Amino acid sequence: MISNKMQKALNDQINAEMFSSYLYLSMAAYFEAENWIGFANWMKLQSEEEYSHAMKFYKHLVDVEGRVLLAAIEKPKIEWESPLQIFEEAHKHELYITDRINKLVELATEEKDYPTQLLLHYFVTEQVEEVTTVAQIIHKFKLIGDNNSTLYLLDRELGMRAK
């Protein structure tokens, strides 16, 4: 049986993951409006991945006889100054989610909640990948600078991301 404290923390994480999905979808919509179709594709797939993370927490709560309690999702930002700014904000957001996951690991350890600890190992590894991937994309943006031809190639490269 899951503790009330752990259940609340996991429900809060479901909301954070749903917001992540919503934020990346908003970023995708911005990119589509600006005709950056490859960047939009990358963000739509990222949105789907974040939704799947929320559902992993959802399933875990159900499996351990906890109660899923959904809350309102905060409205995401809808305007940015540049593609680079969007990816910088995505990086900042992934660092925020990483911190949340780390705090969940600490709580699960304190609570001696071994099933949740096992679930969270997946997310610890996942967050390393998420932060690294976005940091690498930001590095490419900075190498490109204001070169529109090369920016077009990066858009095309990120557009090739598949599920």
What attributes does this structure have?
single chain; 163 residues; mainly alpha; Ferritin; 5 helices; 79% helix; elongated
Structural write-up:
The chain has helices spanning about 5-35, 35-65, 85-110, 115-145, 150-160. It is an all-alpha fold and about 160 residues long. Helix 1 (about 5-35) packs antiparallel against helix 3. The two termini are about 35 Å apart. The model has no long low-confidence stretch (mean pLDDT about 95).
Order of helices and strands: HHHHH
Contiguous helical run count:
5
Total strands: 0
Strand content: under 5%
- Percent in helix: over 70%
Low-confidence stretches: none
State the major sheet.
none
Structural class: mainly alpha
Number of domains: 1
Query: Would you identify the CATH H-level superfamily?
Result: Ferritin, core subunit, four-helix bundle
- How far is it from the N-terminal to the C-terminal residue, by CA? 34 Å
Rg (CA only): 17 Å
The CATH C-level name is: Mainly Alpha
CATH topology type: Ferritin
Named at the architecture level, the CATH assignment is Up-down Bundle
Overall mean pLDDT: 97
Molecular shape: elongated
Kindly summarize this structure in a few lines.
Helices cover 79% and strands 0% of the residues. With 163 residues, the protein is mostly helical. Helix 1 packs antiparallel against helix 2 and helix 3 runs antiparallel to helix 4.
Topology overview:
Layout: H1 4-33, H2 37-63, H3 83-110, H4 114-144, H5 148-159
Helix pairs in contact: 1-2, 1-3, 2-5, 3-4
